Amino acid sequence: MKVLFVLSLLLIIYVYIGYPVLLFLLSFVWRKVVEKKEIYPTVTLLIAAHNEERVIREKIENSLQIDYPKEKMEIVVVSDGSEDETDEIVKGYESNRVVLKRFGKRMGKTGVLNRAMQEVKSEIVVFSDANTMYHAEAVKRLVRNFADPLIGAVTGDVRLESERVSFGQGERIYWQYERWIQAMESAIGYIVGVDGAMYAIRRERYIPPSNDIILDDFVTSMNIAIHGSRVVYEPEALAFEETSPTWRDEFRRRPRITAGGYQALWQGEGVPSISNIPLLFAYISHRLLRWLLPFFLIVLFISNWFTLDIIWLKILLWCQICFYVLALIGLVTETKMRLFAIPFYFCLGNLGALIGFFRWLTKGQCVMWKKGR
Questions:
Q1: Domain count along the chain
Q2: Cα distance between residue 371 and residue 358, in whole Å
Q3: Is residue 58 one of the residues assigned to a domain?
Q4: What is the pLDDT along the chain (373 residues), one digit of tens a residue?
Q5: Which candidate, 361, 354, 329, places its Cα nearest to that of 166?
Q6: What DSSP assignment string belongs to 74-125?
Q7: Under DSSP, is residue 242 helix (H, G, I), strand (E, B) or coil?
Q8: Residue 256 counted as domain residue
């Protein structure tokens, strides 16, 4: 039990503290500079949409306001079997800049993006969600990284507007922490994953994921990195997105992400080979161990329960109990106080990841996504 306790404790510390500290230290001795320059290649802004009548008009208006040469950027809305007014709204904007590509039978996001990419001719493709609103300079700031021929993909800073939800404090702190890790990974040249709501790639580097892949953005960016191009983080490319309106919607999203991670690993898509040790190390440290974290937490608690012969072990057990009680209070009261919101969001994410593992194991996670409000 003590061996299990020590091992699980060390792994948890490594995931949350050790790996970020190691990245920070490496960034001083292994920093890779990106040669940025104002360039204006042709760009396709590819917006995946399924029943987006609530936001699609705002998204198109937002896209038309992007500060990029109009003759160099095309806006393509890919409608995945939308059954509401999404297609009709987009048709009202159709011109030489806004194009609707409608697929009557729903295929899932990965499938429609793969189909759409077969017709894209531009040098750069920017992938976007329909509910993500871009800063006017966002595309320009993403694209300037491609002046460096080693860059294959660029992800931006999508900020969640979560002030109104009970878990907002926890979510905000988590994403600040996550963006910092991305910045450190980017600095040493081995970023793992992108934000699917806003990332850009060289069209020629696109390797289609399988149509049943759940995490299309993750696999697409990892395929680019695996084949020798850098994937970097551009903190000045800003976008804004509403967070899940309730913790229940967020809880539905979390299992999907983890199930998608296990699916990609099992199918061998987006997984670095042993020949690329730095990228494989980052993949294991930032993703695989994070997906396994719920199991480490369970083992830590159980093994701690049976190893109480030293006073500090008793203190650690009571700390764990208090932490989970705070999370439970955050769940019941839905308070926005940081004292409760942070433990609640932590437990929400890890319980979702645990459920995601079993959904993958039982093939219970569909590639289709049920939309939140």
A1: 1
A2: 21
A3: yes
A4: 889 999 999 999 999 999 999 999 999 888 899 999 999 999 999 999 999 999 999 999 999 999 999 999 999 999 998 888 999 999 999 887 899 999 878 888 999 999 999 999 999 999 999 999 999 999 999 999 999 999 999 999 999 876 666 666 778 888 899 999 999 999 998 899 999 999 999 999 999 999 999 999 999 999 999 999 999 999 999 999 887 767 777 778 889 999 999 999 999 999 999 999 999 999 999 999 999 999 999 999 999 998 887 888 899 999 999 999 999 998 888 777 778 888 998 999 999 999 999 999 998 766 655 655 5
A5: 329
A6: EEEEEEES--SSHHHHHHTT-SSSEEEEEESS---HHHHHHHHHTT--SSEE
A7: strand
A8: no
52, two tokens: 């987006």
- 355 lies in some domain: no
CATH of the domain at 160: 3.90.550.10
Distance CA 5, CA 137 (A): 49
Quick check: is 21 in a domain?
no
Strand 124-129 to 43-49 pairing: parallel
Q: What is the pTM of this model?
A: 0.91
Distance (Å) of CA 194 to CA 101, 138, 167, 186? 24, 15, 23, 11
DSSP for residue 370:
P
**Token pair in block for residue 268:** 């061998």
Mapping DSSP to helix (H, G, I), strand (E, B) and coil, where does residue 309 land?
A: coil
- Token code pair at residue 4: 């299990």
Angle between helix axes 168-188 and 338-361 (nearest 10 degrees) is 70
The boundaries of the domain holding residue 65 are 43-246
